[in-house]
Every structure is written in C-alpha cells, then in structure tokens.
Structure prediction request, 300 residues.
Amino acid sequence: MSKFAFIVLHYKAREATLACVESILTLEKAQEDTVDIVVIENGCHDGIETYLREHIDAELIGDVSVVLSEENLGFARGNDLGFAFAKRELDPDFYVVCNNDVVFAQKDTCASIVDSYSARRFDVMGPDIYNPVLNVHQSPCEARMPVSDDYVRSLEEGFRQRLADSYSNERKLRLKYTFMATTMGRALKRLKLKRSSRGWAQPQEGVELQGSCVIFSRDYAAEMDWAFCPDTFMYLEELISLVVSQTHGFKHVYDPSIQVEHMHGVSTSLDHPDQVEKHRFFLKENLKSVEVLKRLIGLS
Prediction:
C-alpha cells in the first residue's frame, strides 16, 4: 500500500486547475493505494473550492482538500503550505508537488513513482516535463552538483545585465516580443527549446529539476518541513532545491519513466499580460532569489 498526496498550487486559472485535478482523479491505483489532492488557493480569492465542487463528481470530491491563503505566498511558500498540510493531515509516502497547469496523462503515474523509488530510493525526484504545444521536454535543467560559486556569480551578472538592457533598449525588447508572437518567432522558440532539452531521455542524478512537478519521498519529509526553501517568492526554486539536496545529502534524481504534460506559464501570464513587464518581473525576482542562493552556499 502506498499513500500519495498531490499538492496543486492554484492561482487564478480555474480551468487549468480543474483539468489538473481531474487528471489526478482518473489515475490508476493499486487496490490499497490512496490518492489525496490538496489544492492551495494562493491568495487569488476566486472561489476555486466552489468551482471544483460544481464540476467534479460528488463521489470524488471527498479526495480533494482546498487550503486557503489570504495572500499570494508565491511559488515556494505556496507549495510549502500544501506540503505542511499533507504532512500533518495525510502522512503520505509520496508528495507530488505540481503547478496547476500540469496534466497527469500517464495513467500508471502512481505505480511508476513506486517503481522509481524502489529502484533509486530518491529523496527528491523530477519526472519528464513535456510541453505538448511546443513539443519540447523541459527537464532536466542546466545545473549539476556541485553548484559552484562561479556558476552563481555568472547567473547574477546575467540577470543584472538583462534587467539594465530592458530599460536602455526597451524599444528593441518590445520588437523582439512582437516578433516572437509571429509564426516564425514561435517556430524559432520551439527550435531553441528543443536544442536546450537534450538528455531528457536518460535517468540522471544530481541534476536541477524543472519545478512544475517535483516528487518528494517520505524520507525527505522525515527531515524537512517544506518542499522548497521558503525565502523566495518566485524563480530559482529548482536550483535552490538542488543546493539543499547537496547540503543535506539528499538523493536528487531525474526519472523520465514518468511524464507529465505542462502548459507553461498560465498564471504568470494572467498577472503580466505586457511581455516587457513580465520580463522585468522575472529578472527582478530572480535577482532576489540569487541572494537566497548565495546565502545558502556561503557566497558573500
């Protein structure tokens, strides 16, 4: 018997959250397995609990809990709210922490998670994150253990330069986003993303995971009360998670035998319809997260 807690971080995109929850409810499970769903309404106050009850069969809605946050806690603390609830109330073997724009199309996801744990005894595991619209695989990401001081410095320098350029060359940046919205621009984006997603087909250890879906084992929860370091609002959570595993000696793995579908960026697009504004928000929050990362690795 295995117990699963799926923690879904909800912010504004109710249709996406419904699709995510419905995909979890239709997963196959062994006779004695239990699957619970914890939806975090992350300060958007859009009545997601009522919405789910209106659209999900009454026999299934009992497996869904909605935890309300009065404010938008961001990515890390929002997920941590759900992680803490699941640890306290459900005590699962596996915590499947995901964005609301993820769909679990692989029906044997639960059995595959158990098989992955049996083979690797992971603390933190990331599946293959596949974007069906762009036809790209988004995990694993760039960083590898050990994360070096030079790598962190280069990230910080890059974010600072790009933010400065967004003001000094705003017209050029707006033209770029106009072009990226064209058919040719979207095609070039797909090509670039495909080139950056090499290596997704092989299991790997000690690699940065894509944060739209991360699975934590009971072993991890025995030592930690949060899924992601709660000191950030958004961005770099995956890299910081890798550093936390590096520091604590957690087994941090990527396993492509499990795949989820990711419709990237639904919630942030709702908050930032202006692409230049969204670009600057991304860079500013990354710079704040870099400061957390520097502190964790002891870089002044």
About this structure: The chain has a mean pLDDT of 93. The CA atoms of residues 49 and 66 lie 6 Å apart. Residues 3-144+199-265 form a domain with the Spore Coat Polysaccharide Biosynthesis Protein SpsA; Chain A fold (CATH 3.90.550.10). Strands lie at 3-10, 34-42, 64-69, 94-99, 102-103, 124-131, 136-137, 204-205, 213-217, 252-262.
